Amino acid sequence: MENKRKIWKPTAAAAELAALVGMAVSVFCAGFCGFAEDYDHITQTVFRLHILANSDSEYDQSLKLAVRDAVLKENSAIFEDCKSAEEAAAAAEKSMDDIKRTAERVLAENGVGYGAECSVEKIAFDSRVYGDITMPAGEYLSLRITLGEASGKNWWCVMFPPLCLPAVSGETAEEAFSPEELELLENPESYECRFYLLELLNRLKERPE
Questions:
Q1: Residue 98: which residues within 8 A CB-CB, separation 6 or more?
Q2: How do residues 113-155 score in pLDDT, each as one tens digit?
Q3: Longest alpha-carbon distance in the chain
Q4: Is 106 helix (H, G, I), strand (E, B) or coil?
């Protein structure tokens, strides 16, 4: 007896549905790629300041803020001519001794027995709210200042564009970021799913072989 196999042929409705699904996937992928480019550009455009307190005691936390105020007031001029995150990082590297001197002077004036260390490095940040914008999670070039044991809560801001340097006449957020990037920064809840997917992909890339 001859076995005859039925060959399934999609109905017109099924074919139309498959086409619509394919189009939807293509549109999503195209939009996600554009989102990923904006995300990467933001992490490469920003130079951050990151200060870690000696501990979470009220006194150590107040000293962290005193160091912040002194560094922003006395060392902001080094970023006046910077036009990119890389230039801001280079300026910080060049003035590292002055920045450290400022931080340690504040600590010495307050009579504590610990000092400060300063460096420029790439630091992985979680998503953080800053004023009206939310900086997405990722690795950012940063000026890192550690006080004493550096085991307390940290403080951070955006050095370039100079969002935490009111005395600096540099780029504003509107000038540094495209309209699409500003939309992403100011309305992160609209991109929550995409943020999650991109962060997941980045974590998978970082896993050892």
A1: 75, 78
A2: 999 999 999 988 877 776 667 777 788 899 999 999 999 999 8
A3: 100
A4: helix
Cα 135 from Cα 158, distance rounded (Å): 9
Judge if pTM exceeds 0.90: no
Locus of tokens 């498959």:
18
User: Could you tell me if 115 and 90 are in contact, meaning their C-beta atoms sit under 8 angstroms apart?
Assistant: no
DSSP 8: P
| 8 A C-beta contact, residue 134 and residue 196 | no
Q: Per-residue pLDDT tens for 26-45?
A: 434 444 444 445 556 677 88
Rg of the chain taking only CA atoms, in angstroms: 24
Q: Could you write out the DSSP letters of every residue in 125-138?
A: E--EEETTEEEPSE
154: helix, coil or strand? strand
